[in-house]
Write a structure and sequence with these properties.
heterodimer; A: alpha+beta; Cytochrome-c3 Hydrogenase, chain B; three-stranded antiparallel beta sheet; 46% helix; 15% strand; B: alpha/beta; two-stranded parallel sheet; 2 helices; 7 strands; 32% strand
Amino acid sequence: MARTVIPFGPQHPVLPEPLHLTLTVEDEIVKSAIPKLGYVHRGLEKLAEIRDHSQMIQIVERVCGICSTLHAMCYCQGIEELMNVEVPPRAKFLRVIWAEMHRMHSHLLWLGLFADAFGFESLFMQFWRIRERIMDLQEATSGNRVIVSVNCVGGVKRDIDAETQKWILDTMKIVEKEVLQLKSTIMDDFTVKRRTVGIGVLSKEKAYEMGAAGPTLRASGIAQDLRQTGYAAYSDLNFEPVIETDGDCYARTVCRFNEVFQAIDLIREAFTKLPDGELAVKAKGLPNGEVVSRVEQPRGEVLYYLKGNGTKFLERVRIRTPTFANIPPLLDMLPGCDLADVPVLILTIDPCISCTER
Amino acid sequence: MKDSVLIINEDNTPELSPDKIITQTRILKDEGFRFVTMSSTDLGESICVLYHLDKDLQLVNLKVDVPKGSKIPSIASVYGSAMLVENEIKEHFGVEFDGLPLDFQGMLYLDEEVQKTPFCKIGITRV
């Protein structure tokens, strides 16, 4: 049978992200997939040579809009370790609250895009309508809807007052109720099940071996989440990773739904335990040495390797994002699937090419 | 100990010669470690390549110093997922990996007209 080579992306009607794959198909069955990166490569890591270590916070926040605060948190955590700075407890809890709000809006954004991929345009708008509530909270607490610039070396730049806390908690109740309603609408739907159950199965062994991250890893039954290490204030919160066992597109979707509910619980608990105290401590000196810092983004584990040389400029900033880790598992899942399932399968790893290409 | 931040020093990050890297990563894989990523830094005369692996969220690093212009073995035969990041390091730092199963010839991110390795302080021209 003749083989056909199909360029898939970087601009594709279904994909919101400029992922570029070269697919080889035989009678609409994918035989192989080869990635090509670079469409949105900006060389942000290189900016460390001309932006000092405190200016780099604003740079890393722009690696990806969807997880801006988590990039900054991971970066600051690494610099704090190099400069031997102990972050105040209130700042640690506030970092968790913003991080979990980010996780919620990222997953809601993805759920909307996922619904849209099936042609459920009204459902897409419903998810994004709920997401707007989180965006409003982010704007009210940080001054910005997308780039939530709250982290600094030594703590956070903003506080959340009692009145806003009440607003956030009231919003959590509404969001929880609305997402729960939509969960059964999409997950019990016949068409969605036909297009996702048993499609793009990533076994537990393969997920681990290929270095998958985030919901892509946990939907295959591996209970691994960086929040288990207890960074920021997670050690004081009741946290257990959300896992699914089937490893297919359906399991990855359920995993993200459940992580939205988990984020709501974590925010509630963090507000209950939020201690009084200062927001940041002053960091003295200049970063010197090498450090690896990791946190759990909505899409999975992000890794920062930072090398300081005792000057205000870092010698190296290296960022490994979760989508980069999820490309090899994706390339493993694609062969054997129908060409029509490729967009859904790609979507279920929640690719962020802006992150990946930096 | 599980930790999300790890200072890299001589005690926790052994420096290996390039010919030992495949054996060492194979040993760690057999012990259940998974591949996380690799990092690289331009040291002037050489490129420092760090291999990050983890097991139960415990990170382990291996360091290899690669003189500029020399080759190191690819670990893609041990961890297939290392192929992409090895191509990235080749493209940005000019490190050649021996045995890469899929070689993008320096065009994973960059285009053909880019002739230099952009992350090196002194670039290596592509021939």
